[in-house]
Amino acid sequence: MSERPNPPSGFYKDPNGLPVERWWDGDQWADLTRPLPRAEPEEPGAVGPLLPRWDWKRIANFSSRTRRVEFWAAVGVGFSIALLVGVVINSSSEPGVALLGLVSLAAWIWLFWGSAVNRFHDMGQSGLLILLFLIPLVNLGMLFWIGTGPGERQHNRRGPPVA
What we know:
- The chain is 40% helix and 10% strand.
- It has helices spanning 56-59, 68-90, 95-122, 138-148; strands at 10-13, 20-24, 29-35.
- Strands 1-2-3 form a three-stranded antiparallel β-sheet, with no helix packed on it.
């Protein structure tokens, strides 16, 4: 039985599932990547989607990049859920409701810290800066910085800019 030949060298969809194309040299994957090509509108005058595509798995995974709008969406969703659960806890005396509060608090912390770390990555900074959020008043400055600061427009060590 003969072996199938390797595909020719070129850019292909990333085998790790990242939103980039990766260079295949004919034998193995290289470190060279480029952003995925943008789909053109199908007809002249047609507009693309008005809202960006949300990738919630990427937003709080602690290892990629997150745009400002995604960061604020994660903060808003987390705060809304925490507020709703807080109202439920205050209006109930059931012991299981307190557990719901702890679970929702843990989920909100994960979502906020993950999206904040990814914002630092998008800005070309270390994710360890998240630890400054533990310092009172400094955390407000950090929130303002990552919530309004621009991300890097070029590829950095955490991947290409988020489109």
